[in-house]
Amino acid sequence: MKTRVRELRQAAGLTQQQLADLVRVSSRTIISIEKEQYSPSLMLAYRLALVFGVSVEELCCLEENKRLEDEQFEDL
Amino acid sequence: MKIYNKKGFVAGLLWMAAGVFCLYQDAVDASDFLPQQIKSVVLSLVMLAAGLTCLARALSKSASREDKIEALDERSRLVRLKTNSLTLRVMGWARVAAMLAGLLGYLCTENLVFGCLFLFGGLSLALEAVVAIAAAVHYETHM
Question: Which residues of A touch B72 (CB under 8 A)?
Answer without folding.
Answer: 24
